[in-house]
## 1
Amino acid sequence: MKNALFVPRKIQTHRYLFHVAHPIFREGIVEWGLLAQDRDYSIIPKGVYAHNLMSNPTYDWYPFVYPFAHDEELGKMYGDNPIRAYDYWRIDTQIIDNDWFIDYAARNDFAPFLGYDPNSMYVYTNKDVSLRALTLFRFQNEVCWDYPGEKGTFHYRAIDEFRPFN
C-alpha cells in the first residue's frame, strides 16, 4: 500500500537533470535507457529518480549521504572519492515527454543531514527515460593547455573534469 504522505506533486524542472548510477549498471542503461522501477511493499513510488540541480555533483547528492559497502569499495578504486566513481546520466527533459514530481521520500530523509530543506532537489518521473535523452557524464582528468596569442600574450584553456564521457 502506498503512503498518502507521498502524493505526487508535478513540478517544472531544469532542462537537465542527473541520475546517479553505479557503473555496473552502465551496460543495461546503454541498452534500455533508464527504466522506472517499482519496489514491492514500498511506499516509494515507481519511477526514475534524478537530481534537479545546476551544479556539479557534491557530497550533498545521493548516494553520498549513506555509502553502502559496494560504494566504499568503488570509492577506494578512485582514491577514496566516491563522487569520482559514479556514472552521472544527464537527462535532457526537452527530448522526452515525461512529467516530473518531487521525491518526498528523499527530501524528508536527507534534509536533516543536509542542514536545509532540499525542496525540489530530488525528483522522479513515473515513466521510463529513453536512451536518446541520456548523456553519460563522469569525472575525468582535467585537460588544459596554453597557446600563444597575438602580440606576445599567452592564453590558457581548460576542460572541466566533470564532462561527457567518451
Note: The beta strands are 10-11, 16-21, 48-51, 87-92, 100-102, 122-125, 134-139, 143-148, 154-159, 162-164.
## 2
Amino acid sequence: MKIVSDGDREGAEINVLATTQEFCEIGHALLSLEERLLIEGNKERDPFYSDVLHGIAFEPWTQGGSNKLLSIEIVENIVCFVGPMVCFEKLGQSLLNFFSENISPGQHFHLDYYEGNQLLEPTKYELIFTYD
C-alpha cells in the first residue's frame, strides 16, 4: 500500500493506493474496530505526489468525544482518522462496497468534506482511495 500527498498544508490531497484485497481487508477491520488500527505504507515514492506518508491510522473513541463525525489529521507522517464507531462502520462498508465490485486499476473514490455530509467533520484534507 502506498500513501502519498501533494504536500499542500492548506488543503492536502492524499492518495491511498492499494489492491482491492487490501482495501477490503481494511473495510472488514473497520466494521469491528475496537482499538487503534495502524496500517503502514510501503513508503514508495509517486511521480504525481511530492510527499510520502508512512501510514494510516483509525482510532475509535473509547471515552466519547466532542465530534460526532470523523476528523482527519496528518501526525508524524501518519494520516489519522479519529471518531465514533458508527462512522468507521460507514467508511468500512463504503470500502467494501466499492472495492468488492469488478473494478479496473486506477478506479477510485474520493472522501472529502462537503456541507451536510454524514461522515466527516470539516477538514482541509481530501482522500482518494485508488485501486493500484
Note: DSSP finds two helices and nine strands in the chain.
